[in-house]
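This section describes the prediction task in plain terms. A model, or a person checking by hand, is given the sequence of a single protein chain and must write out its three-dimensional structure as a string of tokens. No templates, partner chains or ligands are provided. The sample shown here is typical of the held-out split.
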Amino acid sequence: MPGKKRKAESASQNMWGSSSSPTSPSRRNNKQSSSSRRGGGGSASGGSGAYQRINEDSASKLFDEICDEDDPNVAGMEGICKLCEQLQLDPLEDVRVLVLLHKLGANKKPAEISREEWMSGCNRLQLDTVAKFTNYLPALDTGFMDRDEFKEFYKFCFQFNRQGTHKTLEKDLVIALLKMCLDNNRIPTDRLNTFCEFLETTTDESYSKITLDQWRSFLDFSYEFPDEGSLMGYDESESAWPVLMDEYVEFMEKKGKK
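The expected answer:
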């Protein structure tokens, strides 16, 4: 479990508690340009339906147990890890942690949940005790999500793991998140494994950080090109995918020739 961090530091941590190195504006611009498309170009749904009121005092006390020492209205990664401990979840490996945060509506800032988000989410999900949270765990299986709901969750995974105001994720973190989020037959295993291999082996510095557009495009690409046979119709000259996907296809073509 990560050590206690001050609020200013906790906001710069992702799900794995790693801190980011500063990125110069020029470097960020280079990253952005590298993800440009050839040929052109949510957040958790809260719902507005009526629901029974929970014991808000009980839910608030749960938040008191995990909130930051210097800000009782925010729970950062240390507090989230405390919650995981109570629910017997591994915050580093169990995707249900991210699903729970998504369903609670932890959207305001990366790597934290506010008291307001917590109370709203607890009311929506009818959770006000550790026992109720524990009983809710089976509902956090991503297999219950339809494609549109999963795409929103997938976007959330990127956004929640950003560090501060940074708009990109480190490549190593992206690989870990891809394996965590997609290792459930959501996409073909070979597509996931070869894309992670491509990211691991590429020496192109422009891919040391990954943008949200690149992150989301990989999922859409995997839906459109589920197997190697479907890649036969991929035409790079007419591609509107990010350049990253063009280069992944080239990587796959070279693998096929070996």
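For orientation: DSSP finds twelve helices and four strands in the chain.
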